[in-house]
Design a protein that fits this description.
six-stranded antiparallel β-sheet; elongated
């Protein structure tokens, strides 16, 4: 007799799509602009197989691609704040042939100005993790379950979905005057049982992981750093 235990919090994955309409900030300090989307991740809380759909994969997805004009003024700083609702889906299943299973899913955001990562991101770590989950399921019960083990129909399956809202400040100090190319992107990263990077799933079968993003916004504020404190200090 097959025994199959499940804890299910399944989810529908819907993608974030922020319009990349260019905007420019005026040359005086203290100006503000924003791009907003209302598309939402949704979670299906009814027990059963999670619904397929949404956007997956590890390729970057554009939130904002624009040119910003700043004045020739010392300590001119851009405060860039991408905010996202993020969703993670993980499904780990173990059997008598594989008694341990592990997957992970993450949503990462990158901001570049004139092609360079904006702090606290660096060339070595160009993305900031907004949400990440590592899920592992292990068991040794199959050794005690002689009946189903003999029939090769034992399994334990753990499925988990989570939604959360996140916001993070990227700071570009002393940008100098002129036109600057600002790009904000996000991507999904998923791994399999071996720890290798794999495309995030939209099928939600056993031992897979997926993610979603939305609604969200990107705000950009042009301001000046406090000169009394030496401006913006970036350290380890």
């Amino acid at each position: 007799m097959q025994q199959h235990y499940k804890l299910l919090l399944p989810g529908i994955i819907v993608a974030l799509a922020i319009a990349a309409s260019p905007f420019a900030l005026a040359q005086s300090s203290g100006n503000f602009a924003s791009a907003i989307t209302t598309t939402q991740c949704e979670m299906n809380t009814v027990g059963g197989t999670p619904n397929a759909g949404g956007l997956s994969g590890g390729s970057p997805h554009q939130m904002l691609d624009t040119t910003i004009k700043t004045p020739n003024s010392q300590f001119t700083t851009l405060l860039i704040t991408p905010s996202l609702v993020t969703g993670l889906f993980t499904n780990t299943e173990v059997t008598q042939d594989m008694e341990s299973s592990a997957v992970s899913a993450a949503v990462k955001v990158s901001v570049t100005l004139d092609g360079n990562p904006v702090a606290p991101a660096t060339t070595a770590t160009p993305s900031i993790i907004y949400d990440q989950r590592f899920q592992q399921l292990s068991t040794n019960v199959f050794e005690q379950m002689m009946t189903c083990s003999a029939m090769n129909n034992c399994s334990i399956d753990l499925v988990e979905s989570t939604l959360a809202a996140h916001s993070f400040n990227f700071v570009a100090p002393n940008v100098g005057g002129g036109n600057h190319h600002l790009q904000v992107t996000w991507k999904f990263d998923c791994t399999d049982n071996s720890g290798a990077n794999v495309p995030c799933t939209t099928v939600y079968t056993a031992n897979t992981a997926g993610a979603c993003a939305g609604p969200g916004s990107v705000t950009v504020t042009q301001t000046k750093a406090f000169t009394q404190s030496g401006g913006v200090v970036i350290g380890p």
